[in-house]
Amino acid sequence: EDKVVQSPLSLVVHEGDTVTLNCSYEVTNFRSLLWYKQEKKAPTFLFMLTSSGIEKKSGRLSSILDKKELFSILNITATQTGDSAVYLCAAVGSSNTGKLIFGQGTTLQVKP
Amino acid sequence: KAGVTQTPRYLIKTRGQQVTLSCSPISGHRSVSWYQQTPGQGLQFLFEYFSETQRNKGNFPGRFSGRQFSNSRSEMNVSTLELGDSALYLCASTPLLGGYEQYFGPGTRLTVT
């Protein structure tokens, strides 16, 4: 059965800290991994990773995929209180391209 | 470009009733997927529609059904509601068949009493 596991499940840091969120996956015919940020509303798209070893960056956020070890990380540098949210990773297998398989999410709280 | 819209945003129903939720994808997007989000199970895939055809279906009972119209708008229906159906129902649209990026609507919060 396909599955995605995130760790840690929750994290509390102070503003300015750097955090690393982990996502491992076991998905048949893996095609892509996506990261989303969810505050008290719909998940908003952050990154899509398809190739191994190529870092994607957006401001203070960056992410990379390791297809050999079947994991991805999301890094947030110089955290701000506005980064407080649930971060979700989701995997796509080739036979179900309309279906995202989500992990449980990592709840990040950034304290002032 | 307007985002994915869902109506209604909140809904309270009684056990045994049925409910219909609506989703309008981003203009030009033709694939719509539906998810159920609960604290215990997280985000779980319900089904996906493309060109008015259901392409994928998750592991949900037959009480959960959906359809897509020619303008790509989609509806999902839940019949004979149970307390456990209380959840946030999210729909997401994708621009191309086989595309992976999904853009989510704000969701419909369904409470079953």
Task: Describe what is shown at a glance.
The complex is a heterodimer of chains A (112) and B (113). Chain A is an all-beta fold.
Describe this structure in words.
The complex is a heterodimer of chains A (112) and B (113). By secondary structure, chain A is mainly β. Chain A has strands at 3-7, 10-14, 19-26, 30-38, 44-49, 56-58, 61-66, 71-76, 85-93, 101-102, 106-111. In chain A, a hairpin with a 4-residue loop joins strand 7 (61-66) and strand 8 (71-76). The relative contact order of chain A is 0.34. Chain B is mainly beta and 113 residues long. Chain B is built from no helices and eleven strands. In chain B, the strands form two sheets. In chain B, strands 2, 4, 5, 6, 9, 10 and 11 form a seven-stranded mixed sheet that branches. A four-stranded antiparallel sheet of chain B has the order 1-3-8-7, with no helix packed on it. In chain B, strand 9 (87-94) and strand 10 form a beta hairpin. The termini of chain B are far apart. The interface between A and B is medium-sized, with 24 and 27 residues.
* Dominant shape of chain B: globular
- Compute the average pLDDT of chain A: 94
Give the fraction of residues assigned to helices of chain B. Answer: under 10%
Helix/strand structural class of chain A:
mainly beta
The fraction of residues in strands of chain B falls at: over 45%
Which structural class is indicated by helix and strand composition of chain B? mainly beta
Radius of gyration of chain B: 13 Å
The secondary-structure element order of chain A is EEEEEEEEEEE
Helix fraction of chain A? under 10%
Distance between the termini of chain A: 41 Å
Quaternary structure classification: heterodimer
What is the overall shape of chain A? globular
- How would you sum up the major sheet of chain A? 6 strands, mixed
Question: Quick one: how many beta strands of chain A?
Answer: 11
Largest sheet data of chain B: 7 strands, mixed
Radius of gyration of chain A: 14 Å
Number of strands of chain B: 11
Element pattern of chain B in H and E: EEEEEEEEEEE
Give the termini distance of chain B in whole angstroms.
37 Å
| Number of helices in the DSSP assignment of chain A | 0
